[in-house]
Amino acid sequence: MPARRIIPCLDVLAGRVVKGIQFRDHRDAGDIVESALRYSAEGADELVFYDIAASAEGRSLDPSWVRRIARVIDIPFAVAGGIRTRDDAARCLDAGADKVSINSPALERPDLIAELARDFGAQCIVLGVDSFAADGDYWVKQYTGSPQATRDTGRRTLDWVREATGRGAGEVVLNCMRHDGVRGGYDIAHTKAVADAVTVPVIASGGAGAPEHFRAAFLDADASGALAATVFHDRLIAIPDLKEYLAACGIEMRR
Amino acid sequence: MNLAIVDVGCGNIGSVAIAFERFGLTPRTTSDPAEIAVADKVILPGVGAAGYAMDEIRARGLVEPLRALTQPVLGICLGMQLLFEASDEEETDCLGIVAGRVRRLDPAPGRPVPHMGWSKLAVDDPAIGLADGDYVYFAHSFACDPVPETVATAAYGRPIPAVIRQGNWWGAQFHPERSGPAGARFLEAFLAS
Fold it and tell me: Which candidate from A45, A74, A123 shows the least CB-CB separation from B177?
C-alpha cells in the first residue's frame, strides 16, 4: 500500500463548512477555502467535500466552490453531493476536483457507476456508503443528508460494495452511521469485512475520536485511509501529531 | 512561455491548468495541431481510459502532429501511458514514442487497485526536481513497463516507473499537480528544461 491517508471530511451547506452529530443539527464550522488551506498546510493527504443537502434536495453540487478549492490547494480532493449524471461529474472534474463520490444516485441507478468509470476512469469514481447495523447484518441507507429523507434501501452493505466495485467504482468510503460524530472509534470489524470483500481501497469513516482509532483502522481493518471531521474541525487532534503517533506505531505516513 | 495543454476531451485538465497558473503562466488548452506545434512546451494530460483517449486523439487528427513534436512534452498519468506502444487497457494501440507496453496492476491482499495515494520515490536523476524519499500522489490501475528511460520509481508489487525521460519526452505516472511541494518542484524542473 502507499502511505496510509489521513482525510479530513468537510460537510458543505450553502457554500459553508458545517458539522452535525449523527447527520443532524448542523452548525457552522467555517469558510470552505480557509478550511481547505488549513488542512492542506497541516499535512492532510486528501480532502473530501460533501454537499450534504444536494441529493435529498434533488440537485447537484455547485461547481463554483469546487473551483475555489482547486485554485488554492495542491493535494487531491473528492467532491460529493447529488452527482447523478455524466455531465454533473464532468462539471466537478472540469472545475478541478480529482474524484467524484457518489452515494444515493448510485443506489437509484447503479448503471451510473459504469458510465462514469468508462469516461473518467475507475480512479475518479468513489462509492460512498452509509451503512448501519440491524438484525445481525449491515444495511445501506439512502438520502442520509436529510433526516426527513433518509430511508432504508434493503441492500446488504457487503452485497452493494461488491456490486458497485464490479461496476467500476475505484474506491469505497464506508461510513458507519451509528459511529458517526460520537467519537467512539471506527467500526473496525465492519470496515475489515468490507476491505476483505473488495479489491479497491477502502476508507474508514464515522466515529474517529482518538489517535488509537486511526491506528486500529489501519492495522486491524486494513483501511487505505481514515476519514474524520469533528476531531479535526474542533482541533481535538492535530494532524502532524496524529501522523507522528501513527508512524511510531509502524504505519507508513507521508510527512 | 507559450504552454499548450492538449485537450483530448476527457479528464480533469482543470487542476493541471491551475498548477501552471501558480507559476504565473497562462496555459492554452487546445486540440489545434498548429497551436500545439508552435508551443514552447506541451502537456499531454489524461484521466480516463486509454481506448477512449486514443479514439479522441485520432478523431482530432493529432497522432502524427504529437509524434512530430520536438519541444519538451510532459505526459501526465494516462498521458504518460499514451506515449508507449500499446496498453492492456481495452487493448489499445498508443502513440508509440517510447518502446514498451502498459500493463494492468493486479490487486493482492494489502495492495488494492487502483494504486491510490502517496507513494515514496526512488530517484535516479536529480534534474527532475525530485529526491529519494519524496512522496507523490498516484491514482492509476495500469502502469508502464520499467523501461531504461525510467528516472524515478515507486514500488507497488512491482517497480512502477514514476518518471521517464526520453529526449524531449517526459512522462509522470503520478499527478504533479496534486503532489504538494514535491509536485511543484517537478513541474518547475520540466518548465526549466
Answer: A74
